[in-house]
Structures are given as C-alpha cells and as structure tokens.
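Hi, does anyone understand the following?
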Amino acid sequence: MSGRAEARSPYLSVVIPSRNDDHGGGMRERMVASVHGLLDQARRHRLRGELVLVEWNPPADRPPLASLFDWSRGEEGFATRVVTVPPALHRRFPHADAVRVHVLAAWNAGVRRARSDFVLCTSADVLLSDELVRFLASEELEPDAMYHIDRTNVRPEVARASSTEDRLRACAENVLGVSEPLRNELPRGLGIPDLHLSAPGDFALLSRERWHALGGYPEFDVLGIGVDILFCYLAHHAGVREVVLRAPMRLYHIDHSRNWGAPRGAVERLLYDRLRLKDRVPRRVRRALSAWLLRLFPRGKSTWDERGVRGLSFAEVEDYVVDLYRGRNRIPPNGPGWGLEGEVLPEAWMGSPR
C-alpha cells in the first residue's frame, strides 16, 4: 500500500451563472460584492470547495468576466474556475436573440462540471451571512436533503461598502424585507408538501449525486421563473427531504430593478402577495378573477412579452405539480446530455492552484 493519503474531493461547489451586462442596473458592482464576499468568507471560515462561475454568452465588446475580480482573495482550499459558454452554443437554445443568458442551462453546465460532494446553485447578487458560511464549512450537510433558506432583500447601496465585513454590517442595517415563502393551495391528499420556497432561484443546495439523479433543472422553452419551483417539487417527489436553514443564517439579496412579470405577473402578485387571496379564495375563483383583471388591464407588457419569451404563471406551476403527484408528470425531462455534457467548454483556473 502507498503511504500517501488519498486526496479528498472538494466539499462544496458554489455555482453562479454570470452575466457581464447591466441586468437590473449596477450588475457589475453587485457581482463583485458577491464574489469577493464568498472568497473572503471561504478563507476566513475555512470552507473547503470551489467557486464555479459560468460565463454564458460573453459579449464580444466587453472585457471577460475574470477581469472584474481580485483573485488574490482566494486560497488553495477554495479554488475558482471560470467556465465559458461561447455564443455559438448559446445560439442553439430557444430565444437566443431575446435572452442573453439562459440561467437554468448555465446552472446545469456548472453542476455538470462541479467536483464537490455538494453543489449550491446561487446568484451573482447575493451575500451569505457569516453564520451561513460557518454552517457550510462545518461539513454537516446530509446527502439526501434539499436545503432552503429565506431571502432577505437589502438596499442596493450595501454593495458599495469597502469590505466584506462592512457589507454584511450594512446588510443588517438596510433590510427591505424578507421574501415570504410561497404558499400553495394544492390538494394535500396527494402528498404534496408546502415547501419553504422563499428563494428557490437564489439558493438550491443538494448533493452532487442528487443533482445528477434529477438531471438538473428542467430546461423549459420559457424563462426560468417558476421552473426553479418545479425543480424543488421534482426533488421532493423523488424522495429528497427538505431542510430549512433558519436565522441567524441568512441569504442577503442585493435589490435591483426588474423588467419581468407584467401584465400577468403584476396581476398575480396583486392577488397572491398583496390581497393574500391564497388564504381566502378558492383556486378556481382566483383564476377567474385573474383572467378578468387581465382582460380589464391588457396593457403593460414586459420586456420579455414584447420579445415573445414566456414565463410560467403560478397557475401553470400548480397544474404541473398536481399532475406530478397524480402520476402524470408533464414536466419535460432533460436529455442525457444536459448541462452541455458533451461540449468541451473553455475553462480558466483563477487565483489559487487546483
């Protein structure tokens, strides 16, 4: 037997789909705060793993994503890779001219290439509390669990703080609110759980084995809005147990403007979030009221509507979930090559060695 100890695989891969544009205003500033914060905290709390930045469809007239960051913040125990999906591959996906970044497919590409035992898919405009990073670094994650957390929205100016410590202090002092978990009115007799879905698109943490068994996020011919919720129900239906991470562990989301959701999303947010009709009115009545409001207020198309790109409505998400638990899964599965498995993507190691 060899006297050399067998090298352990990294423990946690953090996958961030990156976009070198001005999504929501100030995207570069928010992305730098997010990446630098993770690198600083990984070093401070000895988080063993890697950051996988997926640069999807990089614009030719802008500098590469890797040039934005100070990679000296990294250390050997937490490596960083920038995986690039070139424009030619982007053009294979639906709505390539209208959607610059296919976020679900970008996450899948990162999950496919993640080397760690566990994989966290998150966003480029979030900060993790020190308590959350300490928990991740404790290496106590369970292989058959799906971890969720509330999303705490904070003011955009927190990104301008000069250090990670100052940003986290600013987050605590500039809270806009906590996104309440989506509550459903689905038939309980089918075994459908009331999952804690406060930030499924900003924090999805499972073992790499479970990500692969599920085949990644379903790559719908729609925006990713709503598909992240369907993925959570697919995971539960496949036997994955939900674990909710509670305060003082927090996921801070740096707020920004949005250009999606109207008119359908605006009407549904009125019905679901402001009027709380989920708690008071049967589902069929809500749908009829929603249809009536949309006929009454037909204007106000979103940028995506104008480009012919559709997102899932809450009602459609509910229908998919009900059918799933009734044994009639209509959610289109990915093929065996999901996550661009067969493609050799350009990959650059940044900062610390492999």
